[in-house]
Amino acid sequence: MRNREYFRNKKVTIVGLARSGLACANLFYDLGSDVSITDNQNNNVTQRNAARLKSKSIKVELGQHSENFIKGRDFIVVSPGVASDSLPLAWAKQFSVPVISEIEVGWLLCPARIIAVTGSNGKTTVTTLIGKILEAKGEKVFVCGNIGNPFCAELEKMKEGDFVSLEVSSFQLETIKDFKPNISIIINFTKNHLDRYRNMQEYLEAKKRIFMNQNKNDYLILNSQDRTLRELAKDARANIVYFSAEEGLNPNQAAVMVAGKVLGIGREMCLDVFKKFNGVEHRLEYVTEINNIRFINDSKATTVDSAIWALENIASPILLIAGGKDKGLDYSGVLEMARKKVREVVLIGEARQKLKGAFKGLLPINEAESLEEAVSIAFSKAKKGDSVLLSPMCSSFDMFSDYEERGRVFKEAVFKLAKDKLL
Questions:
Q1: pLDDT digits (tens, 9 = 90+) for 334-358
Q2: Which residues are CB-contacts of 31 (< 8 A; sequence separation ≥ 6)?
């Protein structure tokens, strides 16, 4: 780990005690920092993570934010889910306390070569596949960020000459300062997170930060078929490399193929990895079959485009479970594909009424108070040969800590249903 002395005796407050916040807190404790954590949620997740802290000397407040956790600190580390207008960040500005993200901390300490992946859809798949082609080449690689372990949780294991395949969100990029990946990839750019950003341009400006510190020794990989992304080339100092979908390759695979070329990995090795790849958890993941009804976990689908992709790739009639925390998206984009593929919808979460308005008059609509109830309703409505698909088009934060917890709850409900049917 490089620059480890930089954080010794520094007074650090972490805002948010989810996975990245927990990883940061334990890392800073190991580095000799004075660590505090503040989270306005006091629930099973934050309580469980508080119990996983390495020392009782780490000061924790749950269920509120207090000014004294911010004032006089050397810097604030903000977790991805924390809104830019939150109280801790307002206080940080008032007291002139620098604010950085977890990936900034990771970059400062990381001795490995970083490949950073962002985009509106497909980040997890591309990040995972880059890790797999590097493994196929015999390299030591850490796949982290928004998937798997947080960046900061893996730093102690990394050495010079290793690689990091890092999934990064626009939220994480908002507060970087010097973060500079050797290779950055922007897969695509479509409507997303309009609950956080005032407009698409503001969302794009956040995404562009992935390459703002890159220079002529670095690479920026862009989708040549996306006009908005092509135009970013004029703002970049890095070497620009384009990818595009081609026969036999989807856009995600095409992006990985180009990244492989930059990394010195041959086409045949990449194709072999693609052939063996079974997908990622929570992304069009086959769960099980009950009475000839298939259950598919697509909890990672938090946008309309992701849900459309899922619907396009399922041949059977579908019982669609959707809903969660609305991200300010227009759900009308899914209607044409839903008309062709979906028999009924089951709606959950805060976005139920908005989704109900979008689907009204098009399909039979059911509502559920919980994901478990939604699974039960969908199964009762399904016919032999159908698929029950969780593809929410919304974030998970109204009911769950993240999309992974939502996916796990879905699978648990399905397996419980399967067990009950066997009794």
A1: 999 999 999 999 999 999 999 999 9
A2: 4, 7, 8
Cα distances (Å, whole numbers) of residue 32 to 25, 35, 71: 11, 9, 20
Task: Please list, in sequence order, all residues whose beta carbon lies within 8 angstroms of the beta carbon of residue 164, skipping any fewer than 6 positions away.
Answer: 110, 112, 113, 114, 115, 141, 142, 144, 151, 154, 158
CA distance 79 to 101: 7
Closest CA to 110 of 206, 13, 178: 178
Q: Give pTM, 2 decimals.
A: 0.81
Cβ atoms < 10 Å from Cβ of 249: 17
Helix or strand or coil: residue 43? coil
Q: What is the DSSP string of 49-114?
A: HHHT-S-TTSEEEESS--GGGTTT-SEEEE-TTS-TTSHHHHHHHHTT--EEEHHHHHHHH--SEE
pLDDT, tens digit (0-9, with 9 covering 90-100), for 289-334: 999 999 999 999 999 989 998 999 899 999 999 999 999 889 999 9
Measure the CA angle with vertex 7, ends 167 and 77; round to 5°. 45
Domains along the sequence of the chain with CATH: 9-97 (3.40.50.720), 104-276 (3.40.1190.10), 285-422 (3.90.190.20)
User: Can you tell me whether residue 240 is helix, strand or coil?
Assistant: strand
Q: Which residue shows structure tokens 């005796």?
A: 9
pLDDT at 423: 58
Distance CA 368, CA 391 (A): 15
Answer for the pair 343, 380: CB distance below 8 angstroms, yes or no.
no
Q: Is 387 buried (19+), middle (13-18) or exposed (0-12) by CB count in 10 A?
A: buried
Model confidence at 394: pLDDT above 70: yes
